[in-house]
């Protein structure tokens, strides 16, 4: 058992008969009254995000997890297939468990979080940024880089993102996997 002083981003815990991951937390010590910890928790089974407040010193049941590096192999319908980088075992993961899975390209390395006692995958952490090629977009306007005007674009994985108007088909772009936003154009 741990207490609220052990809460940090990424901590996994049993709460309300489910496994939750701490997304955000804030220790609050008001001028009047007892201290508390305000948290934002994400369910690893349903993906639902809830806000919860724990009183200071509250005991929490921490789930022991292991991070393992896997390589994305291919997608078969709604099932993603990965290979463990150390043991070469293959794992099939439901598409609903992967947030922004349409940004994954073949050969990309990801971190899969496993429940250490039950050996079941809980969640998948994509790399923060991925480099993708634009497969379709309207022709760009050269030199127009001063404004924040964007246009829709399709990348080679089939995902739709917004890019600045100077981006053309065939350009390589860096994409943030958390926000699905364009970061920069990559020179070839």
Give me some keywords for this one.
SH3 type barrels; 188 residues; OB fold (Dihydrolipoamide Acetyltransferase, E2P); five-stranded antiparallel sheet; 3 domains; mainly beta
Specify the CATH class of the largest domain.
Mainly Beta
Cα shape? flat
The average pLDDT score comes to 88
Briefly note the structural class of the backbone. Answer: mainly beta
List the helices and strands and how they pair.
Blueprint: E1 2-3, E2 12-15, E3 18-28, E4 36-43, E5 49-55, E6 59-62, E7 65-76, E8 79-84, E9 90-94, E10 109-115, E11 120-125, E12 129-137, E13 150-155, E14 160-164, E15 172-176, E16 181-186
Antiparallel strand pairs: 1-6, 2-3, 2-6, 3-4, 4-5, 7-8, 7-10, 8-9, 10-11, 12-13, 12-15, 13-14, 15-16
Write up this protein.
By secondary structure, the protein is mostly beta strands. It folds into three domains: 61 residues, SH3 type barrels (Roll), CATH 2.30.30; 61 residues, OB fold (Dihydrolipoamide Acetyltransferase, E2P) (Beta Barrel), CATH 2.40.50; 58 residues, OB fold (Dihydrolipoamide Acetyltransferase, E2P) (Beta Barrel). It contains no helices and 16 strands. β7 and β8 form a beta hairpin. The mean pLDDT is 88.
In short:
The chain has 188 residues and is mainly β. The chain is 0% helix and 55% strand. The chain has three domains: 2-62, SH3 type barrels (Roll); 65-125, Nucleic acid-binding proteins (OB fold (Dihydrolipoamide Acetyltransferase, E2P), Beta Barrel); 129-186, Beta Barrel (OB fold (Dihydrolipoamide Acetyltransferase, E2P)), CATH 2.40.50.140.
